[in-house]
Amino acid sequence: MQPLTGKELEYIVDSMSNEDLLVKQCVSAGVQAQTPGAKDFCKELVGKHQQHYQTLLQLLQQHTSIAPTDLQQANQMQGNQQQHTGQMNTSAQMNNVNGGHGTSYQQMGIKDIQQAISQSTMGSQQSFNQTQIVSSSILKDEDLLYTILADLKRTSREYTTAATESNCSVVRNTFENLLQDSLKMQGQLYQFMSQQGMYNTSSPAVESQIAQQITQYSQTQQQTDQLVQQHLFS
Fold it and tell me: What is the domain extent for residue 221?
């Protein structure tokens, strides 16, 4: 397991904020929803998002023991890693590889991680111990559930980005697992809303539209195959 980078720490704490918000949204929807089955479904979602939050918190705690204690040690660890892998890149090159963030490869110190853990623990206690969240609402059940559905889509996109930009394999695997679980929840919520008539899908694509796309992209495939043959196998 490798020490957290600054970018990984940011993705983890942002993800915890997302999960905390989803917990509150699900509680609010469960309290107010009148649709049969909605309350139990939201209660199930609350439990899953709490598990996600705890998984991310444990991920931070696991990295505390291997985090550098100060900036000097962080820089030394970074230099040792570069020497070991033979990648003696300049800071400008590292910026380009990682989206322009100058501190993306900097190892996070133990104080940074401890601060993140402290903030996240306080946030979870405030969220999970609330006994009443929104006493009344003008939103219909479909609006309450659609808000959760939209945030599940957004969270899934952010987990995808976080996974692709993770340096530590443990962090990447965690994000990948959370992504798959979030996609599963999104699909289940969509099915529930669809069955209740709360979500209108677009009209089916007609045969002529599909045939047109097949023709167009078959031609594209042929052109690409020709390009490959000319430049790689000629």
Answer: 208-234
Q: How far, in Å, are 14, 82, 203, 218 from residue 209 at the CA level?
A: 41, 52, 12, 14
Residue 41's CATH number:
1.20.1260.10
Q: What is the pLDDT of residues 115-146, one digit of tens each?
A: 666 666 555 555 444 434 444 568 899 999 99
Q: Judge whether 76 lies within some domain.
A: no
74 falls within a domain: no
Burial level of 81, CB count in 10 A (0-12/13-18/19+)?
middle
Task: Tell me how many domains the chain contains.
Answer: 2
168-196 exposure pattern, b = at least 16 Cβ within 10 A, e = fewer: beebbebbbebbebbbebbeebbebbeee
Query: Long-range CB contacts (< 8 A, 24+ apart) of 204-210?
Result: none
pLDDT of residue 28: 94
Eight-state DSSP code of residue 34: -
pLDDT tens, position by position, 168-190: 999 999 999 999 999 999 999 99
How many CB atoms are located within 10 Å of the residue 28 CB?
A: 18
Tokens matching residue 120: 């996240």
Provide the greatest CA pair distance for the chain.
Answer: 71
In a shared domain, residues 130 and 226: no
Do 124 and 185 lie in a common domain? yes
